[in-house]
Each structure stands twice: as C-alpha cells, then as structure tokens.
Design goal:
The chain has about 220 residues and is an alpha+beta fold. It has helices at about 15-35, 80-90, 160-175, 210-225, and strands at about 45-50, 55-60, 70-75, 100, 105-110, 135-145, 150-160, 190-195. Strands 4-3-2-1-5 form a five-stranded antiparallel β-sheet, with no helix packed on it. The chain has a three-stranded antiparallel β-sheet with strand order 7-6-8, with helices on one face. It starts with 16 loop residues before the first helix and ends with a helix.
Length: about 220
C-alpha cells in the first residue's frame, strides 16, 4: 500500500494533481473494500479472488460456479480493453486456463478499484503456482431416448487440454459406432466434450492412465446388470 501511494504529501499546502489522483484512487479502494458487493453464484459477474498477498480479477464459467469449488479464469484487470490481452500475455494471465477456485478465496464481485492490488499493477508476472489446480475439460457419455430425455452414463475428467478430451471422445464414439442405439436398449449412447464441473468432481472417473473404452464397458455393464 505504501508503495502504491507513496507520492502523496510531497510538501505542505495544496496537493499536486498527481497526488490528488493518488488520494482519490486510495479512497476509491477503501470504499470498494468496505462496501464489497457480495458475489452470488449464477450471476455471471467477474469476481475478485485472493492470489497470495494480491487480489486478482477472474471470470467465472457459466454453470460451473456453484458449490465449494468453482471454475475461474484469471484475467488482466483492464479486460476487455484492447491492450489488456497483450499486457496479460506478457504478465502470464493468458496461460492459466480454467482453474479450480475455493469459494473462501473470493473477496466479492470485481470492482475496478481493486486493480491497484493486482500483480499487473505491481508490474509482476502471475506466479507459476497461483494456488489453484486446473479445472478444464471433460467428456460426458450421454444415454438419450428419442424424446431427448435420459441421463449421463459416464463422466470422464478433468482434462487439462481440450485436444485430449476430443481424442478420448472420438475413441469412445468409434467404439460406439454402429451400435450406439443398442448398447442400452431404448437409448442412444454418445460421447461429447463438456466443461469439467468442479463442484461435482467426485462424480468423474479419472481418465489418465486408464482405458476409456474399459471405463465405458464397465458403466454399460452396470446399467445392464
């Protein structure tokens, strides 16, 4: 805080325009911290989250923002201005992808006044370890009737890269090709990519170092038993 506002009070008398701007910025920050807007799941608003001693701006992923763990993407505080992507890339904001964020790390709804507390304001790169694990992609194997009612037969994930999820989805659909409508009588079974729902992570089967076709066969056997 001292570093951010050390220009204030150069000498007795009226403040310089630069110092007045710093004072106004500091007052706005204090007001934002005092009257932080409470974040509500499902509102689709950017949020302020703690990353070490800093506060960062984060997007929430629609449909993946309920429970004790939600999916967020850290973004440069000046988003969506034209220079924000370039600066964000230089400072490490664009390479993190979707992350698993505990809700107790959320300060509240993002307020532009928080920007002075970010790594970007300090001219620092985001650390390699921001204290959040990847929460990227998944595969849902769906069993559907002709009227589109049905259920999710199998969930696989998380995948940290979308091409890995696409590869396994293609593998499963190749396995199902020609018999998807007969795997479970009365249902058509297909695999498709989906966001990884971090709030329901216990319902997913870990696809790493596993044969996804064997996981599918086990799920089908369980239904048909």
């Amino acid at each position: 805080m001292k570093r951010l506002f050390r220009r204030c009070g150069h000498a007795p008398g009226a403040l310089t325009p630069e110092d007045q701007a710093a004072v106004d910025q500091f007052r706005a920050l204090l007001a934002a911290l005092r009257d932080t807007e409470f974040w509500t799941p499902g509102a689709g608003q950017d949020i302020a989250v703690r990353v070490g001693p800093f506060i960062e701006r984060a997007h929430t992923r629609p449909g993946d923002d309920h429970g004790n763990l939600i999916a967020v993407a850290l973004v440069h505080p000046d988003t969506p201005h034209a220079t924000a992507y370039l600066h964000g890339h230089q400072l490490g904001y664009t390479g993190k992808g979707w992350l698993r964020c505990e809700t107790n790390a959320i300060i509240g709804v993002w307020n532009p006044a928080f920007a002075v507390l970010t790594h970007a304001a300090a001219g620092l790169n985001l650390p390699d370890d921001v204290g959040m694990q990847p929460a990227n992609y998944a595969i849902h194997v769906e069993a559907r009737r002709q009227d589109n009612t049905g259920y999710t037969l199998l969930r696989l994930g998380p995948y940290t890269q979308t091409w890995l999820a696409s590869r396994d989805a293609d593998c499963l659909n190749t396995e199902l090709a020609g018999k998807a409508a007969t795997v479970i009588p009365g249902f058509t079974v297909t695999a498709k990519g989906a966001p990884f729902d971090v709030s329901d992570h216990e319902s997913y089967a870990d696809s790493y170092e596993a044969d996804v076709t064997a996981l599918l066969a086990d799920a089908v056997a369980g239904v048909n038993a």
